[in-house]
């Protein structure tokens, strides 16, 4: 066995500092050293440093960040934009919101460095509208950065100008998709655009645009300060650096654990006090609900892009939602599909119709009224969404269904043959709840159903 | 136009000044539409026909174009909202951890269903989707402030106090919950000066940070810069200088262990077979 991996707090190292969100606290802990260094460098060298670091997009897709920046066409004298994707909404994903709540300045510094590197003079932070205090903190952080001369004209005497606008969304999961986000930022319904052209060529207002996730941009100051070799000293060869691992669900101590990529769930669970007392791990998502489910057999899968993909899922956003043996897999998957059906933007038929029918069929099975043929209908429907939808929302919606049937087919069948859900939903709650719906509790508690 | 479909002159003037300030933030005026709709909600408590006409007029759009945008986003309300939007997360993780029970109990207690408002106009109840606080499940939001780790009893207590007119503090957020209209004004980009209220993080957010410190785990230190100025721990956002922490390369330092990349080379892992195209 390799040496156990320990945590490596970089972004989270000062989250517990007094008034951590202020510029004063951020500067007292070394903040803005990265910007100082970057402004002495040629912008192309900053791009090269991030490219060399191996940083891959932390918003789920894992596309190399520096490479994305380098796709911008040569300057033509017109505007170029940076848009920070702060629309964190993927079920299970809960890292960017606490980061912006605790240390918004690291995102501002990263945005300034990135804008400088790509030749942008007006950057946008698109934050979901459902996090009021985070939006307050971002507005205040920008205000403080202007007052300190980190934003505005002639930043720190460099001759470089930058404005940042923090923009609040209005409730739509699809706006986390980068081209839907751009349409939304342009004041339209947030529906994805056909690619190509990619945003690097024709993004915001059809101008060259970089869209990056909060955590990606927040990682930039440390990469500039520490250098690409420093960043590469963590993680794996193809999955370099550190990342926030968000543990939620039936674990003793859920929370944010920042570690080198390649750590395992077994190691993380050890830090988080294990599965809640008296229970066993049943299934988990490695990177949010759009990534195929894992089970206890994946406890030692290194959580890096390649290893998770090789095991049949995706690293996604490292949103580890953990469910113990009291959880009905059919209930969990049905609820996720209700979410996807609700959030499908309606632009393309496979996703709009497919998620709708998946939801209905799953509801029927969960209620004990399904047929064995329904399982084939589910898989067939997934087959007609995956790879045929306009954007990744549709693809993601199939993940819990296909992986759920793969690992828990017997449990689906049990709902059908027993004519009811064999689980007591009260058993999975964190507090005692009186039984409310006797019909649902027809079967006795079944414990872990074998896959 | 009838009075219900347009603002009077004084109101239009006041809103116009705010709307122009919003428009000035963007290279192209239409980008102002979402914040302008939040502004309309701060005025009317929902997206009113008059508000739609106001936005259309100022941005040179048809009212149909504005309505098309309004109906796409769940935060825009099509009928007058209560003073407080109370949202219970019933996405999978929160639902399983108890969100379903909280929802049922609160719906019973208030006598209203999804997107319905109590007769006193105080509370509009909603089932909401994942709000990025899963490590605090089950989660409830009041006017989009975090109420973490809820139970049916705690949720009931919150809505009872809201309806009684008490000041109610979120778990992570401002010192007290503001009204739907006040919230909407902030979302339109007009600060209310409350950013410094409340905590920086809750306990789950800090678990990794605290555990690492207890165990002496740190990220590798930044390499010393050639100039002495940036070499003394005032280095970027990384590695705090704290007493008792091991230096790079010393026992307990994470830099001492091999990079996890070494595992790629272990015979029992499969990292070389990437499925990515």
From TrEMBL, chain A:
Alphabetized InterPro entries for the sequence: ComplexI_51kDa_subunit, NADH-UbQ_OxRdtase_51kDa_CS, NADH-UbQ_OxRdtase_suF, Nuo51_FMN-bd, Nuo51_FMN-bd_sf, Nuop51_4Fe4S-bd, Nuop51_4Fe4S-bd_sf, Soluble_ligand-bd
Entry's Gene Ontology BP terms: cellular respiration
EC class of the enzyme, as a word: translocase
GN (gene name): nuoF
Residue span, NADH-ubiquinone oxidoreductase 51kDa subunit iron-sulphur binding domain: 330-375
One Pfam assignment: NADH_4Fe-4S
EC number: 7.1.1.-
Key words, A-Z: 4Fe-4S, Flavoprotein, FMN, Iron, Iron-sulfur, Metal-binding, NAD, Oxidoreductase, Quinone, Translocase
Role of this protein: NDH-1 shuttles electrons from NADH, via FMN and iron-sulfur (Fe-S) centers, to quinones in the respiratory chain.
Cofactor: [4Fe-4S] cluster; FMN
Stretch forming the signal peptide: none
GO terms of molecular function: 4 iron, 4 sulfur cluster binding; FMN binding; metal ion binding; NAD binding; NADH dehydrogenase (ubiquinone) activity; NADH dehydrogenase activity; quinone binding
Recorded catalytic activity of this chain's protein: a quinone + NADH + 5 H(+)(in) = a quinol + NAD(+) + 4 H(+)(out)
Protein name: NADH-quinone oxidoreductase subunit F
TrEMBL record, chain B:
Listed Polar residues bias regions: 250-259
Residue ranges of the region described as Disordered: 221-277
Alphabetic keyword roster: 2Fe-2S, Iron, Iron-sulfur, Metal-binding, Oxidoreductase
Cofactor(s) required for function per UniProt: [2Fe-2S] cluster
InterPro entries: NuoE-like, NuoE_dom, NuoE_N, Thioredoxin-like_sf
Record has Acyltransferase as a keyword: no
Its EC number(s): 1.6.5.11
One annotated GO molecular function: metal ion binding
Superkingdom field: Bacteria
Composition bias type Low complexity, residue spans: 224-240
Gene3D superfamilies: Glutaredoxin, NADH-quinone oxidoreductase subunit E
Family: Belongs to the complex I 24 kDa subunit family.
Protein's UniProt name: NADH-quinone oxidoreductase subunit NuoE
Naturally occurring in which organism (per UniProt): Cellulomonas fimi
């Amino acid at each position: 066995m390799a040496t156990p991996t320990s945590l490596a707090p970089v972004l989270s190292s000062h989250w517990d500092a007094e008034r951590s969100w202020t510029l004063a606290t951020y500067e007292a802990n070394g903040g803005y050293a990265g910007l100082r260094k970057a402004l002495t460098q040629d912008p192309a060298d900053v791009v090269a440093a991030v490219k060399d670091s191996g940083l891959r997009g932390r918003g789920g897709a894992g596309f190399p960040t520096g490479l994305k920046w380098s796709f911008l066409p040569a300057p033509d004298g017109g505007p170029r934009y940076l848009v920070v994707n702060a629309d964190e909404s993927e079920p299970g994903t809960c890292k960017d919101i606490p980061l912006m709540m605790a240390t918004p300045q690291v995102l501002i510094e990263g945005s300034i460095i990135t804008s400088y590197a790509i030749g942008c003079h007006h950057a946008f932070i698109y934050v979901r509208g459902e996090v009021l205090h985070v939006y307050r903190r971002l507005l205040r952080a920008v205000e403080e950065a202007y007052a300190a001369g980190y934003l505005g004209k002639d930043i720190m005497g460099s001759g470089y100008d930058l404005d940042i606008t923090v923009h609040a969304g209005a409730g739509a999961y699809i706006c986390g998709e980068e081209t839907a986000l751009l349409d939304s930022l342009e004041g339209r319904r947030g529906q994805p655009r056909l690619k190509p052209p990619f945003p690097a060529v024709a993004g915001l207002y059809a101008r060259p645009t970089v869209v990056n996730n909060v955590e990606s941009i927040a990682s930039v100051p440390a990469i500039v300060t520490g250098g690409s070799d420093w960043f590469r000293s963590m993680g794996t060869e193809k999955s370099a650096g550190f990342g926030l691992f968000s543990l939620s669900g039936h674990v003793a101590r859920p929370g944010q654990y920042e570690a080198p990529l390649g750590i395992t769930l077994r190691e993380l669970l050890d830090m988080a006090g294990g599965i809640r007392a008296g229970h066993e791990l049943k299934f988990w998502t490695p990177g949010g609900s759009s990534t195929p489910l894992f089970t206890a057999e994946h406890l030692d899968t290194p959580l890096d892009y390649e290893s998770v993909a090789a095991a049949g899922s995706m690293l996604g956003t490292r949103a580890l939602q953990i469910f113990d043996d009291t959880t009905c897999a059919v209930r969990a998957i049905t609820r996720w599909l209700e979410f996807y059906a609700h959030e499908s933007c309606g632009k393309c038929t496979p996703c709009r119709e497919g998620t709708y029918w998946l939801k209905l069929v799953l509801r029927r099975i969960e209620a004990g009224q399904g047929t064995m043929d329904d399982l084939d209908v589910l898989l067939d429907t997934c087959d007609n969404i995956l790879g045929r939808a306009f954007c990744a929302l549709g693809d993601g919606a199939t993940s819990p269904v296909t992986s759920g049937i793969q690992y828990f087919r017997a449990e689906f069948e049990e709902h059908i043959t027993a004519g009811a859900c064999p689980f007591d939903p009260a058993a999975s709650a964190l507090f005692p709840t009186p039984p409310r719906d006797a019909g649902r509790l027809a079967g006795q508690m079944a414990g872990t159903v074998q896959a | 136009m009838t009075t219900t479909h347009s603002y009077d002159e004084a109101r239009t003037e006041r809103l116009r000044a705010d709307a122009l300030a919003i428009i000035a933030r963007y290279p192209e005026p239409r980008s102002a539409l979402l914040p302008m709709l939040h502004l309309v909600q701060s005025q009317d408590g929902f997206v009113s026909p008059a508000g739609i006409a106001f936005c259309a007029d100022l941005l040179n759009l048809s009212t149909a174009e504005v309505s098309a945008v309004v109906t796409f986003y769940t935060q825009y309300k099509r009928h007058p909202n209560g003073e407080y939007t109370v949202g219970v997360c019933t996405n999978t993780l929160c639902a399983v951890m108890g969100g379903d029970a909280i929802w049922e109990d609160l719906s019973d207690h208030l006598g209203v269903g999804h997107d319905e408002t109590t007769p006193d106009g105080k509370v509009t109840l909603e089932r909401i989707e994942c709000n990025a606080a899963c490590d605090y499940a089950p989660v409830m939001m009041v006017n989009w402030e975090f109420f973490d780790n809820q139970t049916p009893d705690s949720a009931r207590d919150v809505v009872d106090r809201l309806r009684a007119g008490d000041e109610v503090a979120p778990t992570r957020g401002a010192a007290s919950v503001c009204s739907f209209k006040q919230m909407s004004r902030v979302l339109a980009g007009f600060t209310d000066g409350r950013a410094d209220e409340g905590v920086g993080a809750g306990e789950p957010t800090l678990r990794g940070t605290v555990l690492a410190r207890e165990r002496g785990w740190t990220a590798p230190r930044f390499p010393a810069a050639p100039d002495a100025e940036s070499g003394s721990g005032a280095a970027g956002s990384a590695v705090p200088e704290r007493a008792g922490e091991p230096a790079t390369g010393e026992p307990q330092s994470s830099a001492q262990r091999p990079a996890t990349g070494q595992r790629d080379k272990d015979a029992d892992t499969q990292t070389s077979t990437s499925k990515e195209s």
